[in-house]
Design brief:
The chain has 237 residues and is α/β, with parallel strands linked by helices. It is 41% helix and 22% strand. The protein has 8 helices and 12 strands. The strands form 3 sheets. It has a 5-stranded parallel sheet, sandwiched between helices. The protein has a 4-stranded antiparallel sheet with strand order 6-7-8-9, with helices on one face. A 3-stranded antiparallel sheet has the order 10-12-11. The longest helix is centred in the middle third of the chain and has 18 residues. 32% of the residues are buried.
Length: 237
């Protein structure tokens, strides 16, 4: 049974979501206070988190920062405002998806299921050899190695920490050098057909990937290039 942690200071919303999630076979843990959210997360070990951004005590951004230091558990953020900046900041901090209040509980549940499917099929290596080591796909270029089986990235012999979706996006682009992909194609191939987000999600992830690669040192042999009005490509000379 999957466990969902709902962090929202509105008891009516928490109870409504509890009913919907319980009916769909989820175990549900609720938290109404931002200051208690992180401890509740540690104690409950949920499979997915529904996190409101506006909370008493610590806000959703602070909670997300704390959780992302120790876990890649899927997080779907709730925002009462339609401000694009709220969504972008949340995605940059590590949210997997978002939904704006007011929302339909059925849509929220569908998004949670989609996030869990992407997480289950994308984060954990599925194949191991006789020695228990992960095996799978790997792409290598001068000073760059992206190993999707072990979910590791190395630049100039330095290991770079990347959440699963950033690594998968980098791997996909690097696996098709010099080929241009639209944002919609990247959403389809990396996030899956059932992704409910928007193309801005791709821009946020590319920005984070570039920052991490640039911080690791100079790499003139390759780059992630923006093709204006189209999308992105992994460019080799």
């Amino acid at each position: 049974m999957k466990k969902a942690l709902i962090v929202d200071d509105d008891p009516n919303i928490s109870e409504l979501l509890r009913l919907y999630f319980d009916k769909d076979g989820f175990a549900v843990v609720s938290c109404l206070d931002g200051d208690k959210a992180y401890d509740t997360f540690l104690q409950s070990a949920p499979d997915v988190i529904i996190l409101d951004l506006m909370l008493p005590g610590k806000d959703g951004y602070d909670i997300m920062r704390e959780i992302r230091k120790v876990s890649d558990v899927p997080i779907l953020m709730l925002t009462a405002r339609g401000d694009t900046l709220d969504k972008v900041v949340g995605l940059e901090l590590g949210a997997d998806d978002y939904i704006q209040k007011p929302f339909e509980p059925k849509e929220l549940l569908a998004r949670v299921k989609a996030v869990l499917r992407r997480y289950e099929t994308g984060q954990v290596p599925r194949h191991v050899n006789s020695e228990g080591e992960a095996t799978g796909e790997c792409v290598e270029y001068p000073n760059l190695r992206v190993d999707k089986s072990r979910y590791t990235v190395r630049v100039n012999d330095q290991e770079i920490e990347m959440p699963p979706k950033e690594l998968e996006l980098l791997f996909f682009l690097a696996s098709h050098p010099n080929r241009v992909f639209t944002r919609e194609q990247l959403l389809e191939n990396v996030w899956g057909y059932d992704f409910y987000g928007e193309s801005r999600t791709v821009d946020v992830h590319v920005k984070r990937i570039r920052e991490k690669l640039d911080n690791a040192g100079n790499h003139p042999a390759w780059l992630i290039k923006t093709v204006w009005s189209v999308g992105y490509k992994f460019e080799l000379p």
